[in-house]
């Protein structure tokens, strides 16, 4: 079996617990204004990689991942667009005694293949773009139908969720956005951690290299005090780890 993959990172430290082998899958069905992996959008780009060869590479580095609940994270792009491949991968990763994580926006149909992957997932890194339907469409170019269905489904799983929220000035950083986020977190019993990630421009170069104008040209990262306001408010209102 082969998967279409953009790239791999062998020593990931921010995409789940421990040290992780991070696989960035090719193809995405969102068009986020601030995407830092713009070169993953086209589902026909990237490289075809054989499942067994990928597992052999992971196994050769297994010693680095076996501590502190380390393992393999699939990211993208949107990895769940290649659920059949990931399902087979996760079976083999668990045989190595490593943990599995899916970094996803949730903008996928809840097919049997997607549900099967989620049943084999130890950590869901849930990338919440916006909880406001108008802002969500403005940021991502798509509506919230699939996302809301996905959110409802994973709420009832035993899988641990690490929620990720990018603080984008003028889009996701208002007090109303904060209230919606706190209410959302408190609806779940399986959200273990919340990462408030400040918007940055590090991915702009990829847009430029592709000959595409960066949509948020001139937008500055959020102020430190607003980042801390979000983090401290969530700490005070939710029983989760906040980073």
Low-confidence stretches: none
Overall residue-averaged pLDDT value: 97
What is the H-and-E element order? EEEHHEHEHEHHEHEHHE
**Terminal Cα span:** 37 Å
Number of domain modules? 1
Beta strand %: 15-25%
Q: Which features characterize this protein?
A:
single chain, 243 residues, alpha/beta, TIM Barrel, nine-stranded mixed beta sheet, 35% helix
Write up this protein:
This protein has 243 residues and is of the alpha/beta class. It has one domain: Aldolase class I (TIM Barrel, Alpha-Beta Barrel), CATH 3.20.20.70. The protein is built from 9 helices and 9 strands. It has helices at residues 51-60, 62-65, 83-95, 112-119, 133-140, 145-155, 175-186, 204-209, 224-237; strands at residues 2-12, 20-25, 47-50, 71-75, 99-104, 123-128, 160-167, 191-198, 241-242. It has a 9-stranded mixed β-sheet with strand order 3-1-2-4-5-6-7-8-9. Helix 7 (175-186) runs parallel beside helix 9 (224-237). The longest helix is centred in the last third of the chain and has 14 residues, at 224-237. It is globular, with a radius of gyration of 17 Å.
